[in-house]
Specification:
29% of the residues lie in helices and 22% in strands. By secondary structure, the protein is α/β, with parallel strands linked by helices. The protein has a six-stranded mixed beta sheet with strand order 12-11-9-10-13-14, sandwiched between helices. The protein has a five-stranded mixed beta sheet with strand order 17-18-19-20-21. Helix 10 crosses helix 11.
């Protein structure tokens, strides 16, 4: 088997062996492992989902790494497995015995397990206060009119001023023909004008199309046209970026309108935002976010993070994404102010830390790449910061020794915030050994949200088994604007309700916490094997000195897939390579490594398209460098350089330490045969895979 066994986590107690009495034929274990992993070659036996259990030809005993079975006793090595993992394997193994059942139809989960995963772990229902966001702001403006709402470089605004300006602009929108159900473009940098414009849209019953003036003009204008904006609100400085009917907040006389309340009845399924996300066709897709989903999100963030009127929040996220609901709206809805720094502050971890401390911020939200850098800094023990919400990508390290909490948030524009976990408390509870065995999970579903990990038939999979994360409940958006086929693909009707298929690969821990392991579209084929790049990233991120990691699949000169690892931190790449060789199949070990700080997209995620090509220089290997000394060695080095796409190879370097693999070994063998006209086979040449020894082998032919 090439796939890791579910629930296996290196670093356990090697002195323990978990034994469970299970009396079944060996074919039952093969059937179970096929259902767990999808592998078709297990313990020398071929198996598919279409076969019946009785058609599996398996010979006992069976040993697969840390697991063995002799037909009566299942043994699992404590260095890899916990006791609850052994219990699960034994229970499921006993359910794979009917020889007439097709493997794919085996009911692996017991009724108790099914109830726990589908029902007990999704007991999230709780009441949500009735007002929608703009109604809540109006309530606060009435109750505490002089409370600060927005603080930015050079200015402040109270809740009364914010609500009054939003009313004035809403009156103007009404006069311009904006009504309930319409859509209005809002193209602003982070600042009070953006929040005024969005609130005015909501008061008029319209959805705000979130636009970023730093985006290319063609992209912004596509969004305006595609979103069918009635008009677009912006500033004079960004007038050339937008198109169509434009109202500039610093050029129009909207402020002459009365500040009297504007009321337009909205319901939970009316749209609050149109958020554009990347699309597989090359054109961005518009997600239709509902008022009901936003209201639920705001409630969950306020309660989970403990936001009160005495809190101080931030707006650091890029303005063209739906993160404004998560970061800002939950703070404003508590009657607390949102602080906005100078743009340069968010470009430096040190500057951002200093600003957070000086501004006495209590709650903030950061993209994963910046947050992991930030918590590696020294923090004053008396900082008032209570928690940071981290989001955007999988968290690859544990925050330790900090004077604040870190909440891992998982979500998307399509489903708002789905799950969260206090990874500071969890990391402390787990202890050093258990932290080393796993990465931070996304935790459990937020209020009124349900989460499921399902297989390709949308059936639940056991803990530890990878499936697709699907979401149901109040957090879901209404789908993609004018994309019925894309919507039908992602929003599916199911016995569990309407499900949003996230495309994220996930697995349950045995306690119900969810861990994200990759993307369904982040799979590649390497030497004929299906590889989840996320699995490799997780393994690299767990190594000493690594802050975060990314892995890309690239084509080499021969058209073969080559894995390249990008690492941020200060690790020993030699040690990383050695460890990966012990943890992963050879085809999953990257052949090249690039160390440096990751480029980021405008919304703070790793910009994978901007990661550099791997260098062609000889990597750090164990052997000292030795120049070729003979004509044969010089020729061999040229052939190696062509095969490995590397420069500066020494004659004592090991072929596999330089990133070689079996496919490249075969290609090199063909080149050597052709160049030297020798009948050498691969075993002869790679018995000791160095140029020096190959030259000797060629001389003897």
């Amino acid at each position: 088997m090439e796939t890791a066994l579910p629930l296996a986590r290196p670093g356990g107690d090697p002195a323990v062996t978990h034994e469970r009495a299970v009396e079944t034929p060996g074919r039952a274990l093969v059937a179970l492992l096929h259902r767990y992993t999808g592998e078709t070659e297990i313990a020398g036996t071929h198996v598919t989902g279409d076969m019946t259990v009785g058609e599996i030809d398996a010979t006992l005993p069976i040993t697969i790494g840390p697991l063995s079975f002799d037909g009566t006793t299942l043994r699992m090595d404590g260095a890899e497995f916990d006791a609850d993992a052994a219990d699960q394997y034994a229970t499921h193994l006993s359910r794979c015995t009917d020889p007439n059942t097709r493997v794919r139809d085996i009911e692996i989960l017991t009724p108790e397990e099914t109830g726990r995963m589908l029902v007990a772990w999704n007991q999230t229902g709780e009441p949500v206060p009735a007002p929608y966001f703009h109604e809540r702001v109006a309530e606060i403006a009435e109750a505490t009119p002089h409370a600060q709402a927005i603080v930015w470089p050079g200015g402040t605004m109270t809740f009364r001023e914010l609500d009054a300006d939003a009313n004035r602009l809403a009156h103007r929108l009404r006069k311009l023909g904006v009504h309930r159900g319409d859509r209005v473009g809002t193209c602003f940098p982070r600042g009070p004008e953006s929040l005024i414009a969005q609130l005015a849209c909501f008061k008029a019953g319209a959805a705000a199309i979130l636009l970023d003036p730093d985006f290319p003009a063609d992209r912004v204008q596509f969004m305006i046209v595609d979103g069918e904006a009635k008009l677009t609100l912006t500033m004079n400085a960004h007038r050339e970026v937008v198109t169509g009917h434009v109202v500039t907040l610093d050029g129009d006389d909207w402020w002459l309108e009365p500040p009297t309340p504007v009321t337009s009845a909205v319901g939970p399924d009316d749209l609050i935002h149109i958020c554009y996300t990347s699309g597989s066709t090359g054109k961005p897709k518009a997600v239709m976010v509902r008022h009901g989903a936003a209201r639920n999100l705001i409630h969950s963030m306020r309660t989970i993070c403990g936001v009160t009127p005495a809190s101080r929040g931030t707006w650091l996220a890029a303005p063209g994404y739906g993160m404004v609901e998560v970061e800002c709206f939950s703070v404003l809805a508590a009657g607390a102010p949102v602080h906005i720094p100078e743009p340069a502050v968010v470009t430096s971890p040190e500057w951002l830390r200093d600003w957070l401390v000086k501004s006495r911020i209590t709650h903030t939200l950061l993209m994963k790449a910046m947050c992991e850098r930030l918590w590696g800094l020294e923090w004053p023990s008396d900082t008032v910061l209570e928690n940071i919400r981290i989001c955007g990508e999988r968290v690859q390290s544990w925050p330790l020794g900090l004077p604040f909490h870190v909440f891992n948030l998982y979500g998307s524009a399509e489903a708002t915030v789905v799950a969260t976990c206090d990874i500071t408390d969890l990391g402390q509870e787990l202890g050093e050994r258990e932290r080393a065995r796993r990465l931070p999970p996304i935790g459990r579903p937020t209020p009124n949200v349900r989460t499921y990990v399902l297989d390709e038939r949308l059936k639940p999979v056991p803990p530890g088994v990878v499936g697709e994360l699907c979401v149901a409940g109040e957090s879901l958006s209404s789908g993609y604007l004018n994309r019925p086929e894309a919507t039908a693909e992602k929003w599916v009707e199911h016995e569990l309700g309407t499900l949003y298929r996230t495309g994220d690969l996930a697995r349950f821990w045995t306690d119900g916490s969810i861990e994200i392991v990759g993307r369904t579209d982040n799979q590649v084929k390497v030497r004929g094997n299906r590889v989840h790049l996320g699995e490799i990233e997780v393994a690299i991120a767990a190594q000493p000195g690594v802050r975060q990691a990314a892995v890309l699949a690239k084509k080499d000169a021969d058209g073969d897939t080559r894995l390249v690892a990008y690492v941020e931190g200060d690790p020993s790449i030699r040690d990383v390579r050695r460890t990966l060789a012990k943890l992963l199949p050879s085809f999953m070990v990257p052949s090249a490594y690039v160390v440096g700080q990751f480029p980021l997209t405008t919304n703070g995620k790793i910009d994978r398209n901007a990661l550099p090509e791997p260098p062609k220089e000889r990597p750090d290997v164990d052997s000292p460098y030795q120049e070729p000394r003979t004509d044969v060695e010089h020729t061999l080095r040229d052939l190696w350089a062509t095969t490995l796409d590397l420069d500066g190879i020494g004659v004592r370097d090991n072929f596999f330490d330089l990133g070689g693999d079996s496919m490249r070994a075969a290609a090199l063998t063909d080149r050597i045969r052709a160049r030297f006209s020798v009948d050498a086979d691969i075993d002869d040449l790679f018995d000791d895979p160095t140029i020096e020894r190959m030259a000797v082998a060629i001389a003897t032919k």
